[in-house]
Amino acid sequence: TRHLSAEQFVFQLERRTRRRLIRSFPDIARRHIERRATALPMPDPDAAPLRAIAKTVAMFHGKTADDLEAGRFTLMNRAFDFGAPDKVDWRGDFGDGSNPLRRMTLSYLGAAVPALASGSGALDATAVMLASLERDNQWHIPGVLRDVWNPYATSHRLINLLAGLALHRAAGGSTGSDSETAILGHIRFCAAFVRSNLERDLQFNHLTKNLVALAVFSAGLPSLPASFSFLHNAVRRSIHQCVLADGGHVERSPMYHKLALIDFRLLAQSGLFGKALDEAIARMETALAAMCHSDGDIALFNDSWLGEGPAASALVDIASVTNTARLSDTGYIRLGCDRDVVLFDCGACGPDATPAHAHADFLSIEASVAGKRLIVDPGVPTYTAGSERSFARSAAAHNGPIVEGVEPLELWSSFRVGRRTSAKAIDDLALDGFSPLWCAGQLDTGMGVSMSRFVGLWPGSGLLICDSWSAGRGAATASFLIACDWRLTGDEPLTFSMESARVCVVSMVGDVQLVGSARHWRRFGVEQP
To answer: Which of the four, 150, 153, 166, 441, has the lowest number of CB atoms within 10 Å?
Structure first.
């Protein structure tokens, strides 16, 4: 708590008090939001800014195979069949225990975007689903304000529904029907709800999403509502808080960086902010390219996984990144030429006020050889608190130097960090002529143990990793997760092969051994060897 700002403390207390009041007096709370909603104009799905926004939102969702009219959905890489849109089990735990992520994701109604874009009967199915959502998620029900009516989830739902209606109109779909009127009414109610429940306690990517939802709603209006006049200052503040000088996102997750870039593009497409976002977006695009492998998608440092939205290469030009790209504020370095790439983590775990997506991946690397991922991050098995979540966030699970029994971050629950430290880059090594591409970093664990790592890359030829440890307790080791796509084809030296590529692992100092099988999750919750 000592890392929270005074503002966050105030709004933590305010949020908890507000939630208690809403649960205790749900009818009064709903009438209050309805009055605020009625004071807002109804958005026009045909507005020009919404057409541009809808194309970006559609790119995020792609052409999903979900069948809205049959009540079949894929949520975070798992399939669910409810039988019909009015039979959705909104309050199910979906096998995730107490974690609300899948309930939240279901309530985003992302499947409505491609369904409505098809111009089919999805309009009626969407209206039926919304009626079911409102019926089964009354505000007095425990947990509802944490998932379906969480402001973050509500913001997603507003954006997806309004973009879906814009795409439906563009596809020649019907207008003025009872179903469309019901959907627009829900959108307007969501706008009033988000405006009354801004996540100023969490801030960062959650508050940004709230602001994006209000801007998208306003893009369908002839003018900005008086109650939304704060948006200009709030967006400027969000840029300052979230976008670092080198263009990285402050939460230091390549995936959330990609999602934040899409959010800032939506803000720009709303037409409300002129060119105020252009420079920040340009910096973020440059930084995103520096977080990517040669396959065109992101490294999986901190809470990151593949498949959440479009590949990075659909958003930025990966080929434009330099052979050595240093994000000094974010703490990532990329070495790469042709199809050989190394990504190195030598920064903080995240912002001190909200390190929710932090992993103890200090001095860890990912590496691609011949365009194929070789050394891989463990990824994200779950957001549910427990042994699996804890291990996946630990230093021992990552590709960095460690000392047995020493964890540089005190991690607990799903998103909490207590005692913490930061790695930092070493830039002043006199290594001209030694390695064409190199980087280095060091970490003081704050527990009487420090360690350093040097990484040198000779593209097409070799990768050299040099680790050093201070004297300390426990065994000093470094382990590396090799992607299951590579086959073990030799024992002395250890040799891995894929197609025409071959990698031999040789220890110049110390012992190297194959320690056995492991697991990783390059897509959320999807285990691979």
So the answer is: 150
